[in-house]
Amino acid sequence: MKLKVCGMKFTENMQQVATLQPDYLGFIFYEKSKRNFEGIIPELPKSIKKTGVFVNEYKEIVISLVEEYGLEAVQLHGDESVEYITDLKEQLAERRALFIEENKHIKKKKNQHKISRNEIEIIKVFGIKDEFNFDVLKPYVEVVDYFLFDTKGKERGGNGTKFDWSVLKKYPFKKPFFLSGGIGLEDVEEVKKILKLNLPIYALDVNSKFESKPGVKKIEELEKFKKKCHFERNVMELRNLKF
């Protein structure tokens, strides 16, 4: 099981969170968000995947920001269609192939942000409250790398509340997913319970419950959360190999 810390905004705080070695750091590129990111991403450990979060954004802008910040994952939090995602993936693959060809004899310079040499992961978000029709996911299964289930609320994300996780017992696919929505330090026992179910949970996504203010993460609480959930990692890593 992986850990994603989303809603990063301030350089010093990013560096502090990075010392905890989460698997993903999320940067929200959405002007209406209190955690909208504008600035510089410092040099991060290679093990951390920089993830851009977008809401119904023009594909050209998504691609531009992927290249500018060297993003390794794209999280789509809007109403993006299968056609949108398919076209985005094709364009990202073309730009990546062109970049690799043009730079195959050039060593990467420190702090040089360019499109990742690895395939860009696509994460599609769906909001859940008390029930959910999983049939709507069928067209997306073959075109995304992961789903992400968040709490359906007034905001596109960062509502700080959990949805009814028991709904996920009806999840019918093998496609791995991120579990998100108001997960905090007080939810460790509930996290342990759901991890024991036969579900392809790939990662936990945390955000507002670990903040002192929007975009500023509480390092000590994140560290405690990671340690308390750590013992489930090996079990879930092995389980996910089935998928």
Classify the fold: give the CATH topology.
TIM Barrel
Provide the low-confidence segments as ranges.
231-243
Can you identify the CATH superfamily?
Aldolase class I
Q: Would you identify the CATH architecture?
A: Alpha-Beta Barrel
Number of strands: 10
| Major sheet description | 8 strands, parallel, barrel
Order of helices and strands: EHEEHEHEEEHEEEHH
Number of helices: 6
What percent of the residues sit in helical stretches (DSSP H or I)?
25-40%
* Helix/sheet category: alpha/beta
**Total number of domains:** 1
The percent range for strand residues is 15-25%
Strands in their spatial order, largest beta sheet = 1-2-3-4-5-6-7-8
| Mean pLDDT, all residues | 88
CATH domain class name: Alpha Beta
Organism: Polaribacter batillariae
Keywords: Amino-acid biosynthesis, Aromatic amino acid biosynthesis, Isomerase, Tryptophan biosynthesis
EC number: 5.3.1.24
Protein name: N-(5'-phosphoribosyl)anthranilate isomerase
Question: Could you list some keywords that capture this structure?
Answer:
243 residues, alpha/beta, TIM Barrel, eight-stranded parallel β-barrel, two-stranded antiparallel sheet, 6 helices, 10 strands, globular, disordered C terminus
Describe, in plain words, how this protein is organized in 3D.
By secondary structure, the chain is of the alpha/beta class. It has a single domain (2-240), classed as TIM Barrel, CATH 3.20.20. Helices cover 28% and strands 19% of the residues. It is built from 6 helices and 10 strands. It has helices at 11-18, 59-69, 82-102, 188-195, 219-229, 233-240; strands at residues 2-5, 24-28, 49-54, 73-76, 121-128, 146-151, 177-179, 201-206, 211-213, 216-217. The strands form 2 sheets. An 8-stranded parallel beta barrel has the order 1-2-3-4-5-6-7-8. A two-stranded antiparallel ribbon has the order 9-10. Helix 4 links the parallel strand 7 (177-179) and strand 8. The chain is globular, with a radius of gyration of 17 Å. Mean pLDDT is 88; it is low at 231-243.
